[in-house]
Amino acid sequence: MDLDQTEQVDVSTAPESPPEPETMEREKLEPARGHAISIKDLNAYYGERHAIKGISLTFEPNQVTAIIGPSGCGKSTLVRCINRMHEEIPKAHAEGTILLDEEDLYGSRVDVTAVRRQIGMVFQKANPFPTMSIFDNVASGLKLAGIRGDSMRERVHRSLRAVGLWSEVSDRLNSPGIGLSGGQQQRLCIARTIAVEPEVILMDEPCSALDPIATLKVEELIDELKRRYTIVIVTHNMQQAARVADSTVFMLDGEVVEHAPTNDIFTNPSDERTERYVTGKFG
Amino acid sequence: MSVTTQTPPPPSRLTGGARQRRRKNVNRLMMGVSTLAALIALAVLALVLVDIVIKAAPALNLDFFTKNPVPFGQTGGGIADSIVGSAILIGLASAMAIPIGILVAIFTNEFAPPRLSSPIRFALDILNGVPTIVTGIFIYGLLVIGHTQSGWAGAIALAIVELPIVARSAQEVLALVPRSLKEAGLALGLRRWRIVLRIVLPTAAGGLVTGAVLGVARVAGETAPLLLTSSIFSNLGITTNPGVALPNIPVTIFTLSESPSPQDHAQAWAAALVLVAFVLIVSLVARTFNERSRRKIAD
Amino acid sequence: MRETRHQFREDLVGLEQQVLGGLDLVISQLDRALESIAYQDVELASMVVVDDDRIDGRYLEVHQGILSMLARQAPVASDLRIVAALLHVIRCIERMGDQCVNIAKLVPLSGYESPKDKDILDAIEKMGLQARSQVLQAKEALASRNVRMAQDLVSQDASINRLNREIFKRAVEIGDDVDMREWGMFMILVARCLERVGDNTVDIAEQVVFVVTGLFREMDDTTPASSPRIVPEPGL
């Protein structure tokens, strides 16, 4: 892949940050058996507004599932119900069953923060903690959950290697996390997420604020991550879903219209509405 | 075309015509007027400062800062006891107001539901607007009547004035911490108080310090509460016991200016200069912290 | 309000029109090639050879148009299927054009006053008409996305294959006359070309089925006349 130095134009982050390096050296992740997410009859509301209407869906382990659909169809709401972030919004609530393997995440005795330790999330705009160094950022989930010392350092290094940042930052682990370029910051956030070893990783439009080269690097990373995790990615970029996902869900108005292998969705969808959306006849 | 008369070139899209020229002149006029206003404001500040400095000059010497007041009739002496007393009063008041103010802000911004935080914000605004003489009378009735004046009463009265300033400023700063940071913390499975302690507070730290410093600057010159709670003191020199009324700069300025002696008047001006200088320095410190904090949050 | 991706839709329709137009060109070439065989018209035959440039040109235009569309528009789903099909079909058109040229080139070789066998000539004429009708049917099936019509081409093609075998047999039994035998060989070659044209129409039919159903099936004599469409279950 011929990568030129386009990162230098990115002035929104620290102007002195180095350009995106030519290659990304990643350490191969050890494969692990992934975990399945099974949604049964999920309903979610913003106050009176019924945003998710009785959805049932399964995300296969060790696979990347993409969720596509027009704005307002509920795809972000859906993933935020999975890690129970939806209920943090005032007046929002969700009801239904979401099984992580066999356990119901909405069970009555379930601790919400424990759910979120098992289900990590990467956001649209990279949000590293500005007052922390690169090392501390990756360690934030560990330190503040009681894991310290050597094993913490080991996990931080491993995560940085896994996302391909090690060669780029190993000499400045104590410099501020916000001194990196946009693409590096996003990979830093991914490192932070996998450092706590979740079972599932949710990604809400993780590349929409990145330039094309940084986007491709993150996509390569996703391909690698699925050897170990189950990944759900919300994206409004259909080409990205086509590149990255094993299976794709098309949503419309709070409902699932079609859920099929990505290849089928993009060569021969069964539902007329899916066909119209992916070919751009919407509008 | 005649050689002697020269018609101006016809206006193009780029050079414009009469309308362009008029707009340009109006622009120049407005710029001139606003520059003049700025200069007037600066001039006023300069005049005030120069006036104070000139009137304070006769009394400014080393003794002024290191010696206690001399008995009535004599010349010389200084306001050392008032400086120490003010420092203690401000210190005690801030020790009470700053932690409570910041904690209130944390409560309303991070933990309270909206139906609680709005009334609290409103209450703080009202408290902020209560005239300080009223606060003074309140503490007077509570703590002075039936007992004596004391440094504690003065400090508490000052704390009540300082609290809403610190709290409101802290609320504004905490609200500036991007929601995305808190979301990131939540998504990692961190508990709320951990997020506040390790993520929100460090990010807002600069702004919180600014707010605290501004609170301190404000109460440094508050006179009314101290008149009622810490104004009658025995001239024992430097006192550090808050159980009794502590001498302080604002009250000292008041009493010195009531005196018939011109040396006392000069000392009053000098004391005023000390106060102004303190506020100036503190404001500069607040600005530096503000800049650093803004840089962190803006990224 | 204009439909979204208006220009893309227009371009796609334009490409398809070019391909359908290519089929018209094939028909006209076929007609003239067969006529030149029937009347030993050398001039007509040479015109057929020269005019093949038009079909080649059409192939290049469509090919370029498809490349451009793939690169710039990233077509998916049914759009992608039609683009892939058009690429395949224009190839078939180019091959059919080449077959017409091959037929035309056989004219001067069969001699000005060569002996002829009426049966063989009749069979060739029938084959020609059959091939022509198949090309037309393929065009119609593609233009109207008609699966039944496309599948019917398989059984249609069976008759061309039958005629081909008949001509071969007849040519083998044609007798001892050298000129006659030579002519018979040439007619076998003509029949071969026509048979290939028929095969290409079946290829086109397969593409029509693919565009409509998303499934690619080799269609031969064993394919039942109406194979039910198999649709993947939603929620796979």
The count of helical stretches of chain C stands at 6
- CATH 2nd-level architecture of chain C: Up-down Bundle
Per CATH, the superfamily of chain A is: P-loop containing nucleotide triphosphate hydrolases
Please state the average pLDDT score of chain C: 88
Specify which chain pair forms the largest interface. Answer: A-B, 31 and 23 residues
| N-end to C-end Cα span of chain C | 36 Å
CATH homologous superfamily identity of chain C = Phosphate transport system protein phou homolog 2, domain 2
- Percent of residues in β-strands of chain A: 15-25%
Helix content of chain C: over 70%
Task: Please write the string of helix (H) and strand (E) elements of chain A.
Answer: EEEHEEHEHHHHEHEHEEHH
Secondary structure: number of strands of chain C: 0
Q: Which architecture of chain A does the CATH hierarchy give at level 2?
A: 3-Layer(aba) Sandwich
Helix content of chain A: 25-40%
CATH topology of chain A: Rossmann fold
Quickly describe the structure.
By secondary structure, chain B is an all-alpha fold. Chain B has 11 helices and no strands.
Question: Your description of this structure?
Answer:
The complex is a heterotrimer of chains A (283), B (299) and C (236). With 283 residues, chain A is of the alpha/beta class. Helices cover 32% and strands 23% of the residues of chain A. Chain A has a six-stranded mixed β-sheet, sandwiched between helices. In chain A, helix 3 (134-143) packs parallel to helix 6 and helix 6 (182-195) runs parallel beside helix 7. Residues 1-17 of chain A have low confidence and may be disordered. By secondary structure, chain B is an all-alpha fold. Chain B contains eleven helices and no strands. Chain B has helices spanning 18-56, 62-66, 80-111, 114-129, 132-144, 151-176, 179-187, 192-220, 224-229, 249-258, 262-298. In chain B, helix 4 (114-129) packs across helix 6 (151-176). Chain C is mostly helical. Chain C has one domain (8-213): Phosphate transport system protein phou homolog 2, domain 2 (Methane Monooxygenase Hydroxylase, Chain G, domain 1, Up-down Bundle). Classes of the chains: A alpha/beta (283), B mainly alpha (299), C mainly alpha (236). Chains in contact: A-B, A-C. Chain A binds chain B through residues 13-14, 83, 85, 88, 90, 113-118, 120-121, 123, 125, 127-132, 140-141, 144-145, 178, 189, 192-193, 196, and chain B through 113-114, 178, 180-181, 183-191, 194, 198-199, 202-203, 205, 296-297, 299.
